What we know:
The complex is a heterodimer.
Chain A: E1 3-5, E2 10-14, E3 19-21, E4 24-26, E5 31-38, E6 45-50, E7 56-58, E8 64-68, E9 73-78, E10 87-95, E11 104-105, E12 109-114
Parallel strand pairs in A: 2-12
Antiparallel strand pairs in A: 1-4, 3-9, 5-6, 5-10, 7-8, 8-9, 10-11, 10-12
Chain B: E1 4-7, E2 10-13, E3 19-25, E4 31-38, E5 42-49, E6 56-57, E7 65-67, E8 73-78, E9 87-94, E10 107-108, E11 112-116
Parallel strand pairs in B: 2-11
Antiparallel strand pairs in B: 1-3, 3-8, 4-5, 4-9, 5-6, 7-8, 9-10, 9-11
Amino acid sequence: AQSVSQHNHHVILSEAASLELGCNYSYGGTVNLFWYVQYPGQHLQLLLKYFSGDPLVKGIKGFEAEFIKSKFSFNLRKPSVQWSDTAEYFCAVNAEGGSQGNLIFGKGTKLSVKP
Amino acid sequence: NAGVTQTPKFRVLKTGQSMTLLCAQDMNHEYMYWYRQDPGMGLRLIHYSVGEGTTAKGEVPDGYNVSRLKKQNFLLGLESAAPSQTSVYFCASSSSGGTFSSTDTQYFGPGTRLTVL
């Protein structure tokens, strides 16, 4: 069965620090990859997505992610975090041949940014 | 364009009571989904629908039923609520899913926080 692993449960950073959140998935075929963000008390919003082409994907609010197929990874990065980036981040995978439209989510990583 | 809306926002039930959560989308999306979100568990798919009149089971369907009588609405029902169903429920929709196209982005509603006592 497909699965998504997010290795960090809770990350605490100071403002201006660099961020990298890990995401690995288990599926050998073609995948679509997503990062969603959930700010406190709000619903999930799409940060960025990868479907094909350039493996380095740029999203909103200065986030980017790199798809490394050989490592089954899709890590999220931001060079300099802000207090407003405090949120929970979810990686998700939609695999070709999987049940229709079914996104498999990781368990999430909470990011706390200290001012 | 409101996107995906959910009603109610909050609800408290007693064990054994029933209720229906409503999800509505105005994007003419074919696919709709119900997830539950629990601390440390991420989001898990309960049921989904690939079009009006169709429904299918997701990862955690037990104790829930769904209906998609109209394309824009997707209802989630709890016939006999249990404390284990205390959770935040999110609805989502997407324009497609089975075609695995670049439009396969799911848009989420604001969530319903359900407590079962």
